[in-house]
């Protein structure tokens, strides 16, 4: 029996390699605009960044989906772009346009200012501490950061783009500067994750949402290497750290990514075939990978998607999730139907 000091947290257990059926479940972006209570708090908080940096509000919105659905994991409410913000880059979120930053030039890389990094992010650490105290003991608490490549795409373009052409071009024109940028981001991200773990996170996820736009050598240099650097820094400080990597769109390169980075869990997007997912699962936990549009559609599309994942991956270490974040138009009734189907599965 587990000692009282080591509470049973199923998502963490699966990350250590246990197979649990029915599998534990949480959703990327589970605190968000599809919930009326999120929209309400968001209005009271003011700007999106005010929400991220105010522990009262951030704790509140993190807990909302746990109260409503009892997900097995809770993910800290924040944004991946607080990291460049804490390095002195400006950041705003505009309604309907997403994040906006001043595009970064080569010489700005030397000027990144680490001196106030942890001070700026102190409210995030406070949010994690309060969450661990307020969450049900059996709920796994996840911290997170963006992977250096994905963070860099927003820093360079100054906004989201469909294929990250500005960052790709920058990486080829200024390879040395670009490598320096990724190295700096990897170092501060490792420190950021260590602080989240020390504040009470049970595991952390590294979001590389734009892995899928790179050719093979760039994937290796910009996605695999910086994440390897983060994982090795975190593990040398906290050897038991549980880490999920999510290189969205990595396709056939998922296999290399898992092997080379040594992450405990691998987040799969919905384009990954279940046969490939099964192979990846032989080396450790996988997380995913329902198409978020099946959740919006509901009915048969949802049921068939859920069943296929349970059937294909249910006998190994699986954390049920979407293949990317839940979208604002997903009906709450469909989230409930999905949970009933997963939890009722035998
Ligand atoms: O998952 C969770 O519930 C935790 C919170 C979370 C948010 N962003 C809140 C958020 C997490 C883990 C993120 C990560 C994030 N942020 C990523 C990686 C994952 C992914 O989705 O690919 C990226 C690329 C970002 C950058 C970002 N933040 C974008 C591109 C946008 C705009 C897109 C959109 O959906 O509007 C955001 C804003 C954002 N981050 C919102 C939320 C709930 C919506 C803003 C709002 O409430 O007005």
Automatic annotation (TrEMBL):
Domain Uroporphyrinogen decarboxylase (URO-D): residue ranges: 24-33, 142-158
Record-listed substrate binding positions: 29-33, 79, 154, 209, 324
Gene3D superfamilies according to UniProt: 3.20.20.210
N-terminal signal peptide: none
Main localization of the protein described in the UniProt heading: cytoplasm
GO molecular function: uroporphyrinogen decarboxylase activity
Family the entry assigns: Belongs to the uroporphyrinogen decarboxylase family.
Function: Catalyzes the decarboxylation of four acetate groups of uroporphyrinogen-III to yield coproporphyrinogen-III.
Name used for this protein in its record: Uroporphyrinogen decarboxylase
Organism in which the protein naturally occurs: Mesorhizobium australicum
